[in-house]
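Archive maintenance. Older records in this collection stored only the sequence; we are now back-filling the structure field for every entry so that each record is complete. The fields below show one back-filled record exactly as it appears after the update. Entries are processed alphabetically, and N-(5'-phosphoribosyl)anthranilate isomerase is next in the queue.

ARCHIVE ENTRY
Title: N-(5'-phosphoribosyl)anthranilate isomerase
Organism field: Methylophaga muralis
Length field: 204
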Amino acid sequence: MRTRVKICGITRRQDAEFAVKSGADAIGLVFYEPSPRAVTAAQAALITAQLPPFVAIVGLFVNASAEMVRQTLEQVPLSLLQFHGDESAEFCEQFNMPYIKAVRMQTAADLTHADMQFSKASALLLDSYQHGVPGGTGQTFDWSMITAISKPLILAGGLTTDNVAAAIKQVSPYAVDVSGGVEESKGLKSNNKISAFMREVANA
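Back-filled structure field:
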């Protein structure tokens, strides 16, 4: 089975269009104000308007209020929610939308605990742990901590053209998630890096 790709932290319409054209299965929009890749719901609506079908539009939230998530859903055609903070399973499930839960990996136990706690999640996204930072660190973690679980795994954290093939060969994830690894600068994607990343995934 081929490895799916999500390109996260999209802030410009042209980057979304190029990601889709290059074969990305999903684009990610960050609704977390402190992030350098944050977008407003109004910006996200413009970025996603009339994108081609069969591409998932993922909204990333970090300890957002339920009201903020609902308001975003009213304005942006999200197909999947991604929770990157300290949200409970009950919080994630209240929107009647498929969701993925991010796990900041410190030990193998973090993964098995999340697998049990978030039993209704569509997938778990594994990211690097850095104290006080909810994600987007640009750092890899020790992939040998990853154990087999019942749901699909999405591998994130410091992936680039240089290491994504090795990551796929070692972990065999359902999907990989990249943001900083395909950027010119924070929030601005590079067409060349997106193309190279997609080639490495296809050839892994």
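Update note: The CA atoms of residues 151 and 187 lie 30 Å apart. The chain has one domain: 4-203.
Entry marked complete.
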